[in-house]
Amino acid sequence: MVAYFDTSYLVKLFLPENGTDTAKELLASADAVSTSLISYAEMGSALARQKREGSINEATQNKLLAEFRANWIRFERIGLTEKLVARAGELADIYSLKGADAIHLASALEFAKAGNGIKVLFATADEKLRKGAVREGLSIPAKYGYEGGKPGTVGEKKMKWGKRKR
Question: What stretch of H or E contains 164?
């Protein structure tokens, strides 16, 4: 099984918050995890916001950024193309998504299409994006926190980065 993590789910791997256990379990059980290239910039932005709001200090921000950067290579990254950005624009209009969220949805759909029938689980903490993903045919099982559209929890597993199975 492969998974697509938008930035709201990637953040959960590095910054303890509601849903962290769920994100770590999904990561541990996936053969591969993909995300959009924009997640790199969004992660930096999310951690900077946490620092500005006083949730973390500068030392914690730097530690989390270093950990994220060290693990970035482990994610299959979906690049931006004219076609993908155009599709994201359509999805933004259809589902009233923010630009970055539309790029995540278009990226996951591109990843699923390239997978030749491999099931892709779409992981996001954003309700509007989740609904768009479901309408576009992506899988979001209740086991990973979306029973009735509300985040849930599952037992915590240690974060591990197993070898990819192809």
Answer: none
Residue 100 DSSP label:
H
Give residue 139's identity as a one-letter amino acid code: S
- The count of structural domains within the chain is 1
pLDDT digits (tens, 9 = 90+) for 33-47: 999 999 999 999 999
Tokens linked to 114: 């390239």
Give me the pLDDT at residue 119, please: 80
> For strand 76-78 and strand 120-123, is the pairing parallel, antiparallel, or unpaired?
unpaired
Q: What is the pLDDT of residues 121-140, one digit of tens each?
A: 999 999 899 999 999 999 88
> Which residues, 6+ apart, have CB-to-CB distance to 87 below 8 Å?
106, 109, 110
* Beta strands, E only, the chain: 2-5, 32-36, 76-78, 120-123
Q: Which amino acid is at 11?
A: V
Q: Kindly report the backbone phi and psi dihedral angles of residue 92, in degrees, each rounded to the nearest multiple of 5, phi listed first.
A: -60, -40
> Could you tell me if 108 and 4 are in contact, meaning their C-beta atoms sit under 8 angstroms apart?
yes
Q: Could you tell me the residue range of the domain that residue 91 belongs to? A: 2-144
- Whether residue 25 lies inside any domain: the answer is yes
Cβ 164 vs Cβ 31: under 8 Å: yes
Structure tokens at 118: 């491999």
Question: Is the C-alpha dihedral spanning 92, 150, 47, 15 positive or negative?
Answer: negative
